[in-house]
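Hey, quick one: can you model this chain's 3D structure?
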Amino acid sequence: MKKLLLFFLALGTLNTYAQDLPQPSPKSTVEQRVGLTDFTVEYSRPAKRDREIFGALVPYGKLWRTGANKATSIEFNTAVVFNGEEVPAGKYSIFTVPRENEWVLILNSNTELWGNDGYEESKDVFRASMPAKEYPKQENFTIGFNSIDEGEGSLEISWDGTGISVPFTVDVVEKAKSNITEALKSAKPEDQWRVHRNAATYYLRSLNDAETAKGFIEGSVKLNPDSWYSHYVHGEVLYALGDNKGAVKAAKTALKKGEAAAKEAGQEFGYASMLEEAMTKWKK
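Sure thing. Here's the predicted structure for all 284 residues.
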């Protein structure tokens, strides 16, 4: 009985002092915002170590955990269209089937797998084949994002000079419009002018919708007539609508407001030349 007690005491001591040691395939986390969608990828990064990777360590035509240790996962907070197919917001494990000229990319709803153990094809939410492409040689397996624009990008999976680039898009426009609507409802009265100006800027510069932008920027100027930048945006909107005279007038007001605010603060107004250039352009 005494020996058994000593055994459990020793076991408890071992469990208490867990060791933190370096791992051959260290964990990595990649976070990326594309448009208004936040991506998080968690994976482990095995090293080549002079081994032949694809076709040997990673056999062609067989399911691969796409990394090491626990299954690689990807999470995103809005729906994402991968390679033309929409995947709902959520967290998924990433698997691949590498072949010499193409890979099959798989997103699976079970994110608690260790490697391939327990993988069930019935839980796949996305599966698509895409051509393999050449990458610069790298020692460690790598996942990242590239070709990022306002509503699109590519998920890059590569190792030892080969991999795949997975194009995707996100619906940034409807999300942005929804955010504007929510901000107009929830912003404090003293902040409403800024919400209106931000909305005007988005509609003008991202959606090329000067008519809608005009309503927002006029509301902003009315709520806060002392913001020089709001008057400048007002000028941009009027110029886009073909009202050159009104645009120049708005720019002059912006210059006057900006210089007055800078003088009161004991500073020089640093945007005078920008406004002068805008007026010269808008007069034509």
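One thing worth noting: The chain has two domains: 23-169, 173-283.
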